[in-house]
Design a protein that fits this description.
The complex is a heterodimer of chains A (about 210) and B (about 220). Chain A has a domain of about 130 residues: Rossmann fold (3-Layer(aba) Sandwich). Chain A contains five helices and eight strands; from the N terminus they run E-E-E-H-E-E-H-H-H-E-H-E-E. The longest helix of chain A is centred in the C-terminal third of the chain and has 16 residues. The two termini of chain A are about 15 Å apart. Chain B has one domain. Chain B starts with a helix and ends with a helix. Classes of the chains: A alpha/beta (about 210), B mainly alpha (about 220). At the A-B interface, helix 2 of A face helix 1 and helix 5 of B.
């Protein structure tokens, strides 16, 4: 499986966020997107899953399930946690597992993997920011999807949780998954490619971040 | 299919939990209808004559109450992103959210209507006709409202805009709903005529509402 982006450009609110982005990502590879605040890291991830319209360029996927779009084969872990405070930890996860097509059997092991098994019946309203983030990460474990798009995945996580997330990411790569991650701090994934978004270079320079 | 069932269950569960819209809607309905006799005075003939109209107006406003949060909460907490990425067609997702809203807001209103009808001096045939028209008509209010809820999703405090957008569109439903409810109480028009048109309006809104709301959501996400 290979995810190929050619000459991506994104425009939001009439302003060009990024342009001329090329990358190619194969099974078992990780790509970290870096850049200063406002450089377009989140926009790039949202563009890949189709939540922001492409102004230019194309995204293709080779191999994998050919009848599914990129968004349908991807997990997107954004800044927002997609959790309802009125539902318990288990109820939140059970909904996303069912919505994304997994059985109920995957829920308990996933909560254990992120260390929330003791809080399973607590309403999500009482979770801390880091615990909410861990609950979001549990979603990635319950349902197997080859492409992971992670937006600042380690923010709000403590050191131990960061390590266990990185272990999960390594595991995902070893199983042939793809990871595209926007990040400020190095994740410590071996052999991860880096795509640097830098708006100070003229958008016309179409070679920005060509890591293919 | 299982994704849609899960969404229906979640939305209904959220609606009946603390801060959900189900109880608020029916309480608002109760308050508005109970206030009417105080404002109009104890004229039983007048209350009987305008009772169906009062109940219909109150039901319309009550079903709008929870509507502005329908997509807005999912937008604010990021759930809408994941829903938009899903394999289920967005039109069906919107239809299911509308169904959850009707089951938790419309159905309690229908159940409360006969009791409140007593406050307004409605007799048994008028009560029966009123409940029938609410059963046939409240889904139209929800599904027309979906369009406004989808348009207002990205706006903070979109509730007012929602009312301004949606209320004019519900005029036909209100006209034929009240006409049918009044017709049962004697009059020149037979009950069937406005009631059939009301059913037609509901069926049309069931199709147009989800399609239009899904289109609006796709635009909003840009």
């Amino acid at each position: 499986m290979r995810l190929i982006a050619v000459d991506l450009a994104c425009r939001r609110g009439g302003r060009e966020v990024f342009a001329g982005i090329n990358f190619s990502l194969a099974s078992g590879e990780a790509l970290t997107v870096t850049g200063r605040n406002g450089a377009g890291k989140s926009s790039l991830l949202r563009t890949v899953v189709g939540l922001v319209r492409l102004a230019q360029g194309g995204l293709t996927i080779e191999g994998g399930a050919t009848d599914l779009t990129i968004a349908e084969q991807a997990h997107y872990l954004g800044h927002l946690d997609a959790q309802k405070p009125a539902l318990s930890v288990t109820e939140n996860l059970r909904f996303w597992a069912a919505f994304l097509g997994a059985g109920a059997a995957s829920i308990a092991p996933a909560l254990e993997a992120v260390g929330l098994d003791e809080l399973a019946d607590l309403p999500a309203a009482y979770l801390s920011a880091g615990q909410r983030r861990r609950l979001s990460i549990a979603r990635l474990i319950t349902v197997k999807r080859p492409i992971w798009l992670l937006d600042e995945p380690t923010s709000t996580l403590d050191a131990a949780a960061q390590q266990s997330l990185i272990a999960l990411m390594r595991n995902h790569l070893a199983e042939g998954g793809l990871i595209l991650s926007a990040t400020h701090s190095p994740l410590g994934l071996d052999g991860a490619k880096e795509l640097r978004l830098d708006r100070t270079t003229a958008p016309a320079a179409a070679t920005t971040g060509d890591v293919a | 299919m299982r994704a849609l069932a899960a969404l229906l269950m979640r939305d209904m569960r959220l609606a009946v939990r603390v801060g959900g819209g189900a109880l608020i809607g029916v309480l608002f309905f109760l308050v508005v209808v109970t206030l009417m006799p105080f404002a109009l005075g104890p004229d039983l003939a007048l209350l009987k004559r305008i009772g169906p109209a009062i109940l219909w107006l109150a039901a319309l406003l009550a079903s709008l109450l929870a509507l502005d949060r329908l997509f807005a909460t999912d937008h604010e907490d990021g759930s809408l992103d994941l829903i938009l990425m899903s394999r289920a067609p967005l039109e069906l997702v919107v239809l299911v959210k509308g169904m959850a809203h009707w089951l938790t807001t419309g159905v309690p209103l229908i159940l409360a209507a006969p009791l409140l009808g007593l406050f307004l001096n409605l007799d048994a045939p008028a009560e029966g006709a009123l409940v029938l028209t609410l059963v046939a008509g409240t889904p139209a209010l929800t599904f027309i409202g979906l369009i406004g809820a989808a348009i207002a999703v990205a706006l903070r405090r979109g509730g007012l805009l929602l009312a301004v957008l949606v209320l004019p569109l519900t005029v036909p439903v209100l006209i034929f709903g009240v006409a049918a409810a009044n017709a049962a109480d004697g009059g020149v028009i037979p009950f069937g005529t406005p009631f059939t048109i009301l059913c037609g309006l509901t069926l049309a809104s069931l199709v147009i509402g989800p399609v239009a709301a899904a289109a609006a959501l796709r635009q909003e996400m840009e």
